[in-house]
Amino acid sequence: MQLEYMTEQEVKRATLRFLKHHYRFRERQGAATLTVDVRGEGGIVADGLYAFTQKNGELFRATFEATAIDRQGEVRFRKQPGLMWWDAAALSAITALALLFWAHQAAVLTVAELTLTGSIALLIAVFSAGLATYRFLIGWHRRYRYIYAIEQFKRYYANEQWIALGEGVFTDFERDPYFLELQNQCRYHGIGLLVLKNRQEPRLLMTPSRTDTFKSKRRNVQLLSQADVNRLFEAGNLPAWLRQFDAENLKRFQQQYKYQALVCLLSALLAAGLLYLQSQKAVTRIVESEEAYQERVALARQRNEQYTQPLEFRIDTPLVWPYPIRSDLQAYLGPQLQPEPARPVAKSQGASPIEAFIASQATVYDCSRIRPLDEVGYIVQEGVYASFTAAMSRVATLESYGFTASAVWLGCFDELENGYALYFGLIFTDLGHARRALEGYERRLGDNVLQLNLNIRSLNPVK
């Protein structure tokens, strides 16, 4: 037996009877107005209107959308992939711009490091990754499930709004995803939901919210009945919006993408501006002529000669007096592990410090013996002495107590240094070995009656 479903006109009349009964106890002034098929500016088509004047003089309006089985597209959602992708693009553009601004402030991943092409490629990669991520994250939201009846309710203000469903529009009120989405959106927006069956009492699923869930964001549109439209037509005073009316287009309330496109455009312009600023600051390498290069090298050498000694020597043997470099910048001095007896020299009261040092079985080397050090060295330092004489005197004193000490000129490692570091033992290339040597010397000192203050000092090789 074929079921007979209610037509849309039958659903409208049944809904008006329901609303008349539902609002019968509301305080009012005068009689209520009941009408079907009212229209308003902006493409508004309400299937029915129930209105009356309240005690405070304000107009109360309740509108409804009546849907029969042949018009079920009015209450079934349609996915909006275009809006979804444009929203994801706008969010991704903002994210990419924020990361680019952070990188600009932190001076990382700049055009100078990646080149302009690399920076643009990285920006496109971040935008693409964000686009896919945001598309996945926001796809579930109700914003992208367009329901014509609800979107139309958002376009104009009414005190209460209803959706009336005829029999057969939905067959499963528990598992049908289209009905569940409609129910969720009605609950969220405060819209009443009503199910009507032929020759049966209406089934009230939910009543409208009495507070404005849209927070006064909707327009107060004048609604015209069919009689009002006919009267305006006869008077030749038909509004322009009414002549452009297309009530059959159920997609007319879908959102446009102009704001998302504007966000993407502004983000692209700002990103281009940041990349331009970075490209202006990028290091520019200018190839200079041979003559200009030689002049620059000569000026650098002239400046360096004012406070440094030559970094190269033409000799690689133990030195004898007179020392071949400035006497106040002696390079390195240290005792041999197995010193050979020095050649006997005539003693004289005017012996120079170098002669006295050699007489005490010591040998003097220049900085070239230290230059091969290609990694950081560590010494057990006893102290730093300002002059060659003071360092040699201290070496002799420590040797008299049984300690083998050496001294190295710090200028061999830093051309701004000008002292002699006196140390015990060897120059270590491992910090752990240096620490163990320091512990050994501290044990030998015992109560430290000599009051020595030993510590570890690092020697950085000359680049």
* Helix content estimate: 25-40%
Mind describing the biggest β-sheet? 6 strands, mixed
The percentage of residues in β strands lies in 15-25%
Shape: elongated
SSE pattern, N- to C-terminal = HEEEEHHEHEHEEHHHHEHEEHEEHE
Mean pLDDT: 80
Number of strands: 14
Secondary-structure class: alpha+beta
Count of DSSP H/I helices: 12
User: In angstroms, what separates the terminal alpha carbons?
Assistant: 100 Å
Key attributes of the depicted protein:
463 residues, alpha+beta, 6-stranded antiparallel β-sheet, 14 strands, 18% strand, elongated, transmembrane helix
Give a verbal description of the structure.
The protein has 463 residues and is of the alpha+beta class. Among the domains are: 8-77 and 147-243; 327-343 and 350-459, no CATH class. Helix content is 38%, strand content 18%. It is built from 12 helices and 14 strands. The protein has helices at residues 8-22, 81-106, 111-138, 148-153, 177-189, 226-234, 240-243, 258-281, 290-304, 353-359, 388-400, 431-445, and strands spanning 29-40, 44-53, 59-67, 78-79, 145-146, 160-165, 192-195, 203-206, 332-334, 363-365, 377-385, 405-409, 420-428, 455-459. The strands form 3 sheets. The chain has a 6-stranded mixed beta sheet with strand order 1-2-3-6-7-8, with helices on both faces. It has a 6-stranded antiparallel beta sheet with strand order 10-9-12-13-11-14. Strand 6 (160-165), helix 5 (177-189) and strand 7 form a beta-alpha-beta unit. The longest helix has 28 residues, at 111-138. The chain crosses the membrane at residues 83-104, 116-137, 259-277. Keywords: Membrane, Transmembrane, Transmembrane helix.
